[in-house]
Amino acid sequence: MRIRVDIKYDDDEAQDLVDDIKRRGRDFRPFFREVRKELQFAFSRNFTTNGLEVGGWAPLDPGYAAWKSVHFPGAKPMIQTGELFRSLASLRGRNNEIDRHSARFGTNGIKYASFHQYGTSKMPKREIVFIPAGAEKEWSRMAVKYLAGDNKVEFLND
Questions:
Q1: 66-90 CB burial, b ≥16 within 10 A, e <16
Q2: C-alpha span between 96 and 90 (Å, rounded)
Q3: Which pLDDT score, from 0 to 100, does residue 157 have?
């Protein structure tokens, strides 16, 4: 004795979901804008915590610290004019691009930024551009949620 089981279904809803995923996969700009927000926060926090996000920055050379206190009284480490901080806190302008399938973030062409990032023979490295701890895993999760359309931010038609 046998029974036969037939399944009847309408695959329109499933096909619509697949079509939505394909559409979102052609344009990751909304996702990259969310990544930019996270980097803006991390870079700003790095400045306000004296490099804590990257393990802490070396203290200023005593001679330079004395000069800075006279010429830029009250200025925090790594901040004189605020240009570098503003550049990394905004992540807009030159060297910051969001395309459909990639994004690039950094300082706005500030020549001295690399001296801080990598150090020199006269000054220690004080990392300012970095990928925050755990970010790659979080961004992977966010990308999957974006593709699936499961997000709290209205990504489409941005």
A1: eebeeeeeeeeebbeeeebbebbbe
A2: 10
A3: 45
Task: Quote the tokens at residue 149.
Answer: 């359309």
Structural domains in the chain (count): 1
CB–CB of 29/137 below 8 Å?
Answer: no
Handedness of CA 49, 37, 93, 130 (dihedral sign): positive
- Quote the domain boundaries for residue 43: 36-148
Per residue in 42-74, pLDDT (tens digit) is 999 999 999 999 999 999 999 999 999 999 999
Q: Facing residues of 43 across strands?
A: none
Mean pLDDT value across the chain: 90
Is 34 in contact with 45 (CB distance < 8 Å)?
A: no
Q: What is the pTM of this model?
A: 0.82
Asked whether residue 101 is domain-assigned, the answer is yes
CA gap 87, 46 in Å, rounded: 13
| Residue 100 resides in a domain | yes
Domain-located, residue 25: no
Asked if residue 5 belongs to a domain, the reply is no
pLDDT at residue 155 is higher than 70: no
